[in-house]
Each structure stands twice: as structure tokens, then as C-alpha cells.
Amino acid sequence: VVLVSGHLDSWDVGQGAMDDGGGAFISWEALSLIKDLGLRPKRTLRLVLWTGEEQGGIGAKQYYQLHKENISNFDIVMESDEGTFQPSGLGFAGSAEARDIVKEIMTLLQPINVTDVYDNAEGTDIAYWMRDGVPGASLHNDINKYFWFHHSQGDTMTVQDPNQMNLCAAVWTVVSYVIADMEEMLPR
Questions:
Q1: Alpha-carbon gap, residue 98 to 100, rounded angstroms
Q2: 139, CA 20 to 30 Å: which among 22, 36, 84, 121?
């Protein structure tokens, strides 16, 4: 299983469009693009739209509890939760050998200048999996304006730039598809 994900959590004010509707959208879009292109990877691509992240990650905890017995089947868990602004690369948590593979995959994104692999993946919703050794990835993007809108009345659809979101979706699509279609799972 290659898991792509986002969540909806700014339910108290605003619309939660950037935090984290954008992460949910690019995850949905990645699988939609792969399907529309008629691609069928060797492994399962799974979309999870988390709930309850702000209430202590209860949705992620429940999902983990329901699926942890199959942890050896999870290749990578990916979460976008810091906006969908201009992407720069991926945060990655996993073995050095897996990191080298992810770095090679990121070279495919050179045409859109999104090739960096950062030292740490973050995400409340994927933390259980990473703690247990499953490689994890999180979207890195230009977060200079993130806290202008984070959990505020201003977190509306007008914050989203369709071009930047398309680039984020491209990163999510390429990385998830290539990993799902590799002959072997990422090394742990």
C-alpha cells in the first residue's frame, strides 16, 4: 500500500481550504490523475482523508489500530498538512537506502524545479506508521504565508493558487505512482 493523505481540521473558523483542504485535494487529485492516465501500478494506491487531527489525531489512531496488523504491506505513508503553496520537495523519514531511492524519484520533477528531499517527514496522521518503521513523506512548500491563514477566518478558497496546487498535485502524483510501481518496496 502506498498511502496518500490529507485532512480537514480548520473546522472552527474559516473554511479550512488551505489547512488542510489543500492536502486532501492534492491527494485526491493524485489518484484521479493516475486513473485518468490509465496507469495501473504494481501496488495499491490508497487515499485517506483523515478526521479528528485537531482533537488528538483520533482518526489516524483509529485507522492505525484497524490496519497495523498489515504494517508490512505499507510501502510509504504520505501526508500533506502545511498548505499547498509553491512546492520545493519532500520531507522524508526512512532508511538511508530508501532516502536515496526517493532522491532519485525526485529528479523526475526537475522540469518543475521541485527536487529537494528534506531530513524529516512530519504529519500527525502518519506518525504512528513512521514510528513503527514505515517510510514517510510530507510535502514541503513555501510556508511564508501559511500562518497568515492557519486556523483563521482568512483560510478560504481565495488563499489557494490553482497553479501552485497543480504543482503540489504533480509532486504527489509522481512520487506515489513511481513508488507504487517499483519492483520492490522501499527498504526499511
A1: 5
A2: 36
- The verdict on whether 69 is a catalytic residue reads no
Helices (H), 44-109: 58-67, 96-106
Count CB-CB contacts under 10 A for residue 105.
19
CATH superfamily of 2-181: Zn peptidases (3.40.630.10)
Domain extents in the chain: 2-181
Model confidence, pTM: 0.95
**Half-sphere exposure in the Cβ direction for 109 (13 Å, CA):** 27
Tell me the pLDDT tens digit for each residue of 43-60: 999 999 998 888 889 999
Q: How confident is the model at residue 10 (pLDDT cuts 50, 70, 90)?
A: low
Sheet holding 136-141, edge to edge: 45-50, 2-7, 76-79, 136-141, 87-93, 116-118
Q: Classify residue 164 by its DSSP letter.
A: H
pLDDT at position 138: 98
pLDDT in tens, 141-188: 999 988 888 888 888 888 899 999 999 999 999 999 999 999 999 999
Between CA 48 and CA 84 the distance in angstroms is 17
Q: Are the C-beta atoms of residues 140 and 91 closer than 8 Å to each other?
A: yes
Site of grid cell 507504487: 180
Q: Which of 53, 79, 82, 122 is catalytic?
A: 53
